[in-house]
Amino acid sequence: MRERKRVTIEDVAKRAGVTSMTVSRTLTGSGPVSNSVRVRVEAAIRELGYIPNRVARGLRSNRTNTLALVVTDVTNPFFTTVARGAEDAASDRNQLLLLCNTDESEAEELRYIELLAGQGVDGILFVPAKNGYEARKLAASRSLPLVILDRRVEGEPVSFVRCDSSSGSVSAAEHLRELGHRRIAILAGPVGVPTSDDRVSSFLGGFQGDQNLIDVLHGRFSTDWGREAAAIALASKPRPTALFALNNFIAIGALQVLHEQGVRVPEDMSIVGFDDLPASMMVDPFLTVVSQPAYEMGSTAVEVVLQAIDNPAAAIVEKILPTRLLVRRSTARLADR
């Protein structure tokens, strides 16, 4: 079977009766084009089935209009919502967004940064597994604009968009404290991950003199760890009266174990989670959570990285978005139980 010849910009120009430069201006908006000429060019594009070559255009303009979002766990509904916000914002700006998943691996971070630089992406939205120092250094060596999401990182200044984990954790601590809880287990993520470290320290700070009654259990941000941590907490003597799960996967795993062991929520155990689940995943909003504006985080990060692409000399941008405590039915006053 004879291979179909690829339609070129010259073919479009010939069909529309204009120059190739005029077709290029019509496509990119880089110069003035009359309405009548634009109509002819667009008609020729449709008739011929012309598809602009993004890579070739990138070679000429030094831009590919391609961004990448690198996250630690693409299955986490929080990052799914971040990705949706980023995708919508990128689409509005005629940008292609690539999605990469590292599984919380620093080696994978470096591999993706190298691959994305080789593919000519214009900028990266990056959720590091921990501090992401080596990945940030690699991106800088490739002159690749990078914006950190959902993390507080140390080292060289870098633009970031994250939520206020500290105030959110304090609000969770104050809520449980007001309900009379003192013996609490924090089901945390890995030591060294800024979001986990910040949430633990801020929650403990909200309890001041009662910190010695709080156990901190460190593991992964996963449902499996939520199950394991909840089992450890339930087996401890004396048993805590409340759990604080530092992300939605940990909270889901903990709830599974509580249900399996016949521990009623909130009658026997109160639980607060960090990160809400999308409304489409909840038949009955039940879990008291510290909610983060995940969609806004993604869309804001796209705007920040595009600013850096347009103006490499622009100042570092630091965006901290507010959290909200949503009190539902998974927490109760200790005296009422």
UniProtKB/TrEMBL annotation:
Keywords, ordered alphabetically: DNA-binding, Repressor, Transcription, Transcription regulation
Gene3D superfamilies in alphabetical order: 3.40.50.2300, lambda repressor-like DNA-binding domains
Name of the protein described by the UniProt record: Transcriptional regulator
Domain of life: Bacteria
SUPFAM superfamilies registered for this protein in UniProt: lambda repressor-like DNA-binding domains (SSF47413), Periplasmic binding protein-like I (SSF53822)
Single GO molecular function: transcription cis-regulatory region binding
Boundaries of every HTH lacI-type domain copy: 7-61
InterPro entries with a match to the protein in the record: HTH_LacI, LacI/GalR-like_sensor, Lambda_DNA-bd_dom_sf, Peripla_BP_I
Any coiled-coil regions, as ranges: none
